[in-house]
Inverse folding.
């Protein structure tokens, strides 16, 4: 939850209207971290129509697992 530290609704509304929270830049992140950042940023889109549905999120996660399974498990950084 990106705004868990905020307790009042007006502040949360203001923050969400400013757009998605600034995520940690995926540079120098592992493959898994980059994939999770990617799907999280898509889920935070302001317009509901631009957000992925649950079926798409599940497929994205399955695809991520498939990619991991086909890589060398000793190196999960996949830089």
């Amino acid at each position: 939850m990106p705004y868990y530290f905020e307790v009042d609704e007006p502040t949360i509304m203001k923050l969400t209207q400013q757009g998605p929270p600034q995520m940690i830049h995926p540079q120098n992140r592992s493959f898994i971290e980059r994939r999770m950042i990617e799907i999280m940023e898509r889920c935070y889109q302001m317009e509901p129509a631009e957000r992925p549905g649950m079926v798409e999120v599940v497929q994205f996660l399955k695809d991520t697992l498939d990619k991991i399974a086909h890589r060398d498990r000793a190196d999960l950084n996949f830089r």
Remarks:
- The chain is about 50% helix and 0% strand.
- The helical segments are 9-17, 31-43, 54-69.
- The longest helix spans residues 54-69.
